[in-house]
Amino acid sequence: MPAIVLIGAQWGDEGKGKATDLLGSRVDYVVKFNGGNNAGHTVVVGDKKYALHLLPSGILTPGVTPVIANGVVVDVEVLFHELEALGSRGVDVSRLLVSANAHVITAYHRTIDKVTERFLGKRQIGTTGRGIGPAYADKINRVGIRIQDLFDEGILRQKVEGALDLKNHILVKVYNRRAIEAEQVVDDLLSYTERLRPMVADTSLVLDRALRDGKTVLFEGGQATMLDVDHGTYPFVTSSNATSGGAATGSGVAPNRIDRVIAVVKAYTTRVGAGPFPTELFDESGEYLRSKGFEFGTTTGRPRRTGWYDAPIARYTARINGVTDFVLTKLDVLTGLPTIPVCVAYEVDGVRVDEVPVSQSDFHHAVPVYEEFEGWTEDITGVRTFDELPAAAQRYVLALEEMSGSRISAIGVGPGRDAIVTRHDLLE
Ligand code: GDP
Ligand code: IMO
Ligand code: MG
Predict the structure, then answer these.
(1) Average pLDDT, the chain
(2) pLDDT at 162 (0 to 100)
(3) What residues form the annotated binding site for Mg(2+)?
(4) Which ligand is nearest the CA of 303, by number?
(5) Where primarily located (predicted)?
(6) 334 CA to middle of ligand 1, Å?
(7) pLDDT at 1
C-alpha cells in the first residue's frame, strides 16, 4: 500500500510527467503500463529540461525503481537510446525493470505505421509514426514479438518470419514498398539481448511483493482518457487503454489493490492529431493559448490544437477512471485573458446535453455551451498557496472543481518542478 494511478484527463500532454515527478520522492516504484514512445513528457528540474518518451518520468527521481510493464510496447532501440541519453546527463538508470511479457516494436511496425497513414490520406489519424498501432495490432492478432522471445533465437526467428509472411505481401503488393528481411530484423533485435537481460523481470510479481512490503507504487499513464482505444474518440485514438483500468491489465496488479486515481487536466484543452474537439479555437485566442502555453508536441514537434476547458469531458474522465483527485495544470497560461469561457454542456441538433455523447457523429458536431468567467492579470507563477491566488483565479478553479466531478488537489502555476499549489495531499 498504496497503489496510485495517474492518468491524463483529456487528449494527452496535460503535464503528467511533471505531476509524476512531483510525487517522485514519495514513491518507490513508477510503472508505465500502456503505450510506448508515442508519449512525450517534458519535465523541468531547475534549469534542466528532460524529454522522456518510453521511460516513465519517475526515472528522474533518485531511488525510484522505474518499471516498464507488460502493457507497454517497447522499441528496444529507443529504449537504449533514452537510457544512454539520461545516463550521460547523470541520471541513475540502473534500476529499470522491463516486463518479459511486454511486446516489441520492430522496424516493420514503424514502416507499416507510416505507410498506412499515407494510404489513409485525408482520413489519417495523425499518429506519431512510432509503430504503436501496428505493434498492438500484432499483439491482438497473436503474431507479436515479446521481450522474452529475444532470449530464444530459434523462437524469435520463427516468430519474425511468421509475422512478416503476410506483411511483406501487403507491403510489396498494396503499398509498393520493398519487402523487409526477417534476418535483418532478427539480427537487430538480438544485438540488444545481453544489455536487456539484467533488466527483464516478472514485473507483476515484483510489484505484488513491493505492495505487500508497504511500498508506494505509482502507475503512470501515457496518452489520456480521450485517446483510449475503448473510451476515447475512436478511431482517432491510440491503440492502448490509457484509462485507469489499463493500469491493472497493463501491469498484472489487480484492480482492488489500487487506492487512488489522480487525473491530470489542463486549465484549457489541447489535442495533437485528427479527431473531434468541440471547444477547439481557430481564432487569436487559440493562437494565444498555443504560444503562451508553448503547445507544440514533445514527440513530433507538431503544433497542438487548442481550445477552452471542457467540463463534460472532465466529468466523463472522473467517471470512467474513478478519479479521486484532479491535478489542474497550466493555470498560469490563462493569466491576462479578460474573460475565460468554459464549456459546461453541448448542444447537439439544438438539444442541450450534459454528457459526452456516445455517438461519434453527435460528438463531431456538438456545439459547446459556454459560461464566461472573469480573468486575472496578476503573475501567479510564484504563488504557492491557494489563498494567494487572485480572487478571480480562485473562482475559476472552484468553478471547475464544482463541474468536474472530483476535487482539484493541486494546481500547476508554471513548468518548474516546484511551481505548484497544493490543496490536498495527493497520496492520502
Ligand atoms: P505529458 O505528456 O502529460 O507529460 O505532458 P507534456 O510534457 O507533453 O506537456 C506538458 C507541458 O506543459 C510540458 O512542457 C510541461 O513542462 C508544461 N507544464 C506542466 N505543468 C505546467 C504548468 O502548470 N504551467 C506551465 N506553464 N507549464 C506546465
Ligand atoms: P502523452 O503521453 C498527445 C495521439 C497522436 C494521434 C493518436 C494516435 O505525451 O500525453 P499513435 O502514434 O499513438 O498511434 O497516435 O494519438 N497521441 C498523443 N497525443 N499526447 C500523447 O502522449 C500522445 N500519444 C499519441 O497524435 O492523434
Ligand atoms: Mg506529452
Answers:
(1) 96
(2) 95
(3) 13, 40
(4) 2
(5) cytoplasm
(6) 14
(7) 56
- Name 242's Cβ contacts closer than 8 Å, sequence gap at least 6: 7, 8, 34, 35, 221, 222, 223, 224, 225, 227, 228, 232
237 phi, psi to nearest 5 deg: -140, 175
Q: Average pLDDT in the 14-19 region?
A: 94
* Residue that the C-alpha cell 489500487 belongs to: 258
Contact 371, 341 (CB under 8 A): yes
Determine the Cα–Cα distance for residues 402 and 396; give it in Å rounded to an integer. 10
pLDDT tens-digit profile of 24-65?
889 999 999 999 999 999 998 888 999 999 999 989 999 999
SS3 224: coil
Active site residues: 13, 41, 139
What is the grid cell recorded at 273?
A: 492529431
Count CB neighbours of 238 within 10 A: 27
Residue whose C-alpha cell reads 499513464 in the numeric block: 221
Nearest CA to ligand 1 atom 14: 42
Residue-wise pLDDT for 344-385, tens only, equals 999 999 999 999 999 999 999 999 999 999 999 999 999 999
- Sequence-ordered alpha helix ranges (H) in 203-342: 203-212, 244-249, 284-292, 311-321
Asked if the peptide bond before residue 255 counts as cis, ω within 30 degrees of 0, the response is no
pTM for the predicted model, two decimal places = 0.97
> Which residues, including other chains, have CB under 8 Å from residue 330's CB and lie 6 or more apart?
15, 266, 267, 268, 293, 412
